[in-house]
Every structure is written in structure tokens, then in C-alpha cells.
């Protein structure tokens, strides 16, 4: 089948080839509506398909947006990537997905590799990139949006930030449990606590329990040998399992657990089940993120949902705006979380606290070589 040329489209539309070229390269400011409609009709009639490779050679740009995440082996980032792809498609872009695997060198290679491919818009969810590196990437001509994570409190002036309100997400979880009647709440955090989102959540927990005047609450942070943030679903679930051992051993009065994400909540629930401790009849569990797997478990997980679709739409729109109009002063776009009440939370048991202990014969005490950090919160 003969390939339709731009000259044939121009002839069919009754315009010059230059006008058709302007149409395909979005130079539409001075083009009449009737002219655009004739070109669109000619394209549809002839079945013309533009040569994107040739367009990229002429402009030095590509309709691609880079997306850097730690790993899509983490369900949160997997679902975020899907939403980004859909939002990008609606704006006429496609996503190049880059799994950094929490490696600073991998991440830097991706930044330069994307630039070499002609990509000019990059969305990153990274705690590894430095402010100096972001400034360098902006000087290279990249339009950058940080999502969910950032290396410091103050980003470079032209780097937008799109994020859930992490402190508010924990506040919603604690408020929900307090309304149910809980006063002894343990929060499972990551020992490294090096990412912006995880630090914010831990701070949010401390603020929330203090505002309620709760005295018997605990920040539980299981350590691991590498000392680096855990991101894969398997690692996060294992963290929840380890933390439950600590909670039952060190804080047996706990009637509710909040975790910094849903996969950790899943691990915690499984560990409680293995010890024949009923959820939520004896201990309630609330996660953060609202990923879809939480709806498939038994019990389904009460969680604070991060509106990933909205985050994706805002991030893609920010990149598109910068690519179209040029960089401008930074925008911080903070999105409100939403509490989703399911089956893993309920009022605390009306019984002696000893009933929370596991059945005889189970071993809930952490192994001697386990490095554990816990913090007790005492309201003076």
C-alpha cells in the first residue's frame, strides 16, 4: 500500500505543505479554525500517518515523558505508573518507565539517557536525587515534576511538586481509631525513615496522638542490615510481620496498629493470623495508600487512599504546561487523602488485655540478633 505524503494531504486540504507541517508541529496560533478542520478531514480521508521519527529529528523533541520510580515491584508505584500512562495518553504523550531500584547511579543514567533520547519532560518519585542534580537537569532543558517524594523541603524554583498530604493521611487513620475507642495505638514505620513521605508520616503520627492526649502509643521501627529504605512488596510485608513480633513482645497492650503503607499492613495482618489473634476483634489494623490489593484480602484493609489518578493528572498537566509555555515559578500541588473504612478496623475488645496474648506455644519474642528500635510516646 502506497504511503500517503504530506504533499498529498496539503493538496486534499487545499493548503500548502508548510501549513500542514505547522499543523503537525503545533504551530497553530495564527491558523484559522476552518483551515485546521480541512487538514483534519484530509488526514482522515487519506489515512495519513505522520512520521514521528522525522518530526523528532526536526524538533529535537519527542512526545515522551520519563517516569522514574524506585520499582513497580511495589504495588503503589505500579498503580501510579498505570495512572501516569493513562493521563499521559489523554494529553498526547507516552510514558518511558524507569525503575531505579533505589540506585543513585541507575537514576543518574536514566536522567541523561532520557535527555539523549529527546525527552524533555521527566516525572520523578525519588528520595535519591539531590537539589544540585535537579538544578543540573533543569539547566539541561528538562521540565521536571517531583511526585510524592523530594530530596529536601525546598525544591529548585522551577521544579513542581505533586503529593498527597502525608501528615493528614496518618491523622485520618489515628482519628478513625480514636473515634472507635482505641487509646493504645502502635505505628509501624521504616527504620531508615529517609524518604520525605515516610518522615512526614512518622511526624504525622506523633502529632496526631499528641493532639488526642494519648499516652500509650508507640512508634515501632524494625531495623534491617542494609539500612536502606524497603520498597518491594515482599520487603514491606516482611517488615509488617517483624513489627508485629515487636509489638506483641514490647507493647502487648496495643489494640490498634497503623502502618505506613498497605503492604506492611498485609504483613502485619498475616502475622496476627498466624498467632490466632483476630483482626479486628482483638487488634485493628489500618494501612496507608488504598491500593487495590487491600480489597482482596480477608479482612479487607481499612486504609487511607492516595488519589493516584488525580496525582497523575496533575503531574502530567504540569509537565505539558511547562513544555508548552516554558518553565515558570514552582507550584506545590498538595492533594487531600481519603479514609476508606473496610473490615480490618473495629472498636477495641472489652476484655482483659491478657486476652491479646497469643495462644500458648507460639513465639512472639524477636530473635536476640534482631536489631530493634522502638519509641514510646508519653504525653506529659
TrEMBL record:
Gene3D superfamilies cross-referenced by the UniProt entry: 3.40.50.2300, lambda repressor-like DNA-binding domains (1.10.260.40)
Q: Which residues form a coiled coil?
A: none
Where do the record's region annotations for Disordered lie? 345-370
Is this entry keyworded Iron? no
Q: Could you state a single Gene Ontology molecular function term?
A: transcription cis-regulatory region binding
PROSITE patterns the UniProt entry points to: HTH_LACI_2
Keyword set for this entry? DNA-binding, Plasmid, Transcription, Transcription regulation
Domain HTH lacI-type intervals: 4-59
UniProt name for this protein: LacI family transcriptional regulator
Which species is listed as the source?
Answer: Pantoea cypripedii (Pectobacterium cypripedii)
